[in-house]
Predict the structure.
Amino acid sequence: MITHIEHIAIAVKNLEKSIKHYEDNFGLKCYKVEEVKDQKVRTAFFKLWETKIELLEPTDSNGPVAKFIEKKGEGIHHIAFAVDNIKSTLKKMESGGIKLVDDKPRRGAEDLLIAFLHPKSNNGVLVELCETKNPAGSQLEWEEKV
Ligand code: CMX
């Protein structure tokens, strides 16, 4: 049901400084900066084949990334797995006893359908499931999934 690692997200205090770090020292190219208002973050994306590195900078001290940095400092915030069908994956996870943060998919960065699984159910790692929009499907079909 998991096809690949969609992204690895890193919590950072200063997005511009961190973008420069990954560009200058790792030779990666940031292709997009996007604010996700409801998650209280600004994000920056780098592509490495089919996997992305996502930097997360908090925009509000009450948001999940600000709380994470305050508690643990900068570092890996979550791992996101790409799945073919997020709804059925969530159902399967829940029936297997995994604690869900989101019991139904919602829209995340890059216009993906996403849902988080609680770190307490995954060896202390926050896990995100992502289903990419089917390019062949209509917007309506996609909306119906949310
Ligand atoms: N990775 C591992 N553990 C984490 C964590 C993370 N990213 N975030 C929180 N935790 C742990 C805390 O350390 C804490 O553990 P202890 O009880 O052992 O101290 C526990 O989870 C509870 O943490 P909290 O600070 O009290 O936070 P909440 O319970 O209010 O929320 C969580 C935790 C995971 C439900 C919340 O952060 C969440 O809903 N996350 C999903 C959304 C998100 O992270 N959005 C930002 C990214 C958005 C994007 O990529 O676009």
In short: The first helix runs from residue 15 to 26. The pocket of carboxymethyldethia coenzyme *A is lined by residues 9, 36, 39, 41, 43, 56, 64-65, 67-68, 71, 77-78, 101, 108-109, 116, 118-119, 124, 126 (CB under 6 Å). The two ends are 19 Å apart (CA to CA). Confidence is low (pLDDT under 50) at residues 135-140.
